[in-house]
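Cross-posted from the bioinformatics board.
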Amino acid sequence: MKLITAIIKPFKLDDVREALSDIGVQGITVSEVKGFGRQKGHTELYRGAEYVVDFLPKVKLEVAVAADMADKVLEAIRAAANTGKIGDGKIFVSAIEQTVRIRTGESGVEAL
Amino acid sequence: MENQIFQLQYAIDTFYFLVMGAFVMWMAAGFAMLEAGLVRSKNTTEILTKNIVLYAVACTMYLICGYQIMYSGGYFLDGIAGGDTLVADALAASTENGFDGDSVYSSASDFFFQVVFVATAMSIVSGAVAERMKLWSFILFAVVMTGIIYPMEGAWTWGGESVFGLFSLGDDVVDEAGNIIMTGFGFSDFAGSGIVHLAGACAALAGVLVLGARKGKYGPNGQVNAIPGANLPLATLGTFILWMGWFGFNGGSVLKLGDIANANSVAMVFVNTNAAAAGGVIAALVLARTLFGKADLTMALNGALAGLVAITAEPSTPTPLVATLIGAVGGILVVLSIIGLDKLRIDDPVGAISVHGVVGMWGLLAVPLTNEGTSLGGQLAGLLTIGGWVFGASLLVWLAIKFIMGVRVSEEEEYEGVDLAECGMEAYPEFTGK
């Protein structure tokens, strides 16, 4: 089992959700987050004076899938969230040791 | 029959005056919302407190002595009652002036219309010194400003008095035999670009110089930091309220509605006032977009007010197109002035000194463009007299207040917000996590 964590631009969330539904993903978890990458935030002007926005708003997606699905999911997110511009985000893949469905007590791939 | 027509004219002119005065009173709400929107949320309660208290202080001080100083209306308004012969006196004055002549209206309505202008002048100050001035120092200044400083320069202009007996800004002064004993400058300020707006801005500038900038506004090496306002919907609402109130400010200053010529003049003043504000918005927004790359709403809002201030000195003689251009020049000036004041490290959170001061001067100097009875020299004389008096007197008062009780809150109180330090309550207690 793999946990795929993606940081994407907020306006791309709907596209990514649709792409994941299309390849049969059963569920995702979404949170609104803030952060910075290599650009270190950016500056805005207010009445002619600059101010720095240190952390930019992003959306974090978490998807837990069977190991053989992981590449498909990764590619679906990459394709749907890609704008080709700076700040498109990142995708992290990590292993899941165990999964339990709370209602039934099922565990492992059955619980995904 | 003629007397009945005069009575009706008296009634309609008085009614007009009162309604226009109520419009101007509502500008206090506009200033309160504009300022509440452009300060940080931790300073909202205090700026609202200042706004309602300064309005009350202005009304009270002008009643006690301001109206006497400016128009000889009597201390505590004891000159406005009229007595038993009120109706007969009004009819006699109406007959003498004629149906098309000068307006005859209730003295109480005159006081009401004048008192709301005092409050407007004082409202200008509160925004410029926002976020760092002690509440009670500000209130003390309001007492002197609305009770003495403003009524003095008002007496020299609209009140028709000579300046300390030295010279006359307006008409020539004649003795009882009809000889000219003092030549007037022919200064003209229809509704108060100078008398109200420039005056307020000069008092504000003096205050800001004594007070200093907000902590964190300016860094070393000429760095200017932005301190964004907390609530732009409120700032926009405030600007619209001011725009509406300005129809009373300028429209009411025609002083009469009750005959065709004056009714037309009132209509023209409404049209020109509106046109100038529109010109100010467009010019300020286009310039801000050109300079900054983004459409800065706060500059558009200041542009509207700049257009209004610019046309206030003479809204009756320009064509609507010229009025639009006068407003547009105001809109350009206000953006450049805001940037320039920041370069000089004069911190004005809401742009009051630029909107009312710099553009107020432009308004005064633009009068001779369309009003043939005025001259650039005369306008300059008025500008320098009003500006010099209000700035100088205000500076002395601010310094005296600084000496007596201080003008600035402590650094820690400024960081925490003056809402808690001065008022003990937050404007949005449920939104801020502590």
